[in-house]
TrEMBL record:
Pfam families named among the record's database cross-references: DeoRC (PF00455), HTH_DeoR (PF08220)
HTH deoR-type domain location: 10-65
PROSITE patterns: HTH_DEOR_1, HTH_DEOR_2
Alphabetized UniProt keyword annotations: DNA-binding, Transcription, Transcription regulation
This protein's name: DeoR/GlpR transcriptional regulator
Species annotation: Collinsella aerofaciens (strain ATCC 25986 / DSM 3979 / JCM 10188 / KCTC 3647 / NCTC 11838 / VPI 1003)
Amino acid sequence: MAQATNRAFADERRAAIMEMLEHNASVQVAEIAQTFGVSSVTARADLDALAEAGKLRRTHGGAVSLHKRLTVSTQDRRINVNVAAKQAIAQSAIELVSDGDTLLVDSGTTALEFVRLLDQHDGITVITADITIADYIDESMPSVDVVMPGGALRKGHRYLYGPLTMQALQMVHADLAVMCPGAFVPGCGFTTDFPQMAETKTAMIAAAHQSVALMDASKVNGRGMYRFAELADVDTIVMDCDPDGAVATSIAETADDARPNLVIAGA
């Protein structure tokens, strides 16, 4: 009887969530929890169930209507792309972190998967210009400290860039920079599609004792106009797989004292 009652309450709550989306086009987990007096876990479960039923689309921290126009961030559009690969990469990369580390964390969904695992360690501080990552830490990881530089917000991408960001990065030093390239091009290096973001990424690598590049196989020979680092500028590369051995071949062509380590997740 209690189970049936709970199911009825859940159905009513989910119908009400759909009503909220009809009026607002988007809804946040915190808003649902406050409105219905439920936990964030329950609110997320409601959104997951509605998404599975094809009634809405999940985003980080909430959901959007399938029927209304809404500006959705690049991270939200990519959050369900190559998920298994990104999670495997994050699982391998977390082995590079030690208790007490200060980490510079790049923008992107692979970086977010990495951040989700940081509560395995104590005394971690994350420096990031990515608002989605900072928001996740604030909501879900009370044991992790987060520092954000200033800067201009790139609309639709949820990260900060520009002179204020660059100035802040010149004032910090981290144990590890966790980078997420837009692409890796053999003979060129790691690239991205926005010149100011390339500048920020280069500064992050310079501000850390060591750096790691996290990228799934789709990034090899991908698109990216602006190079932010050469192969020798990073210490480790973590991938789900290396298609046609392109990255391994590039590493072999690099000078011995500048070759990064290549880690294949799960291998």
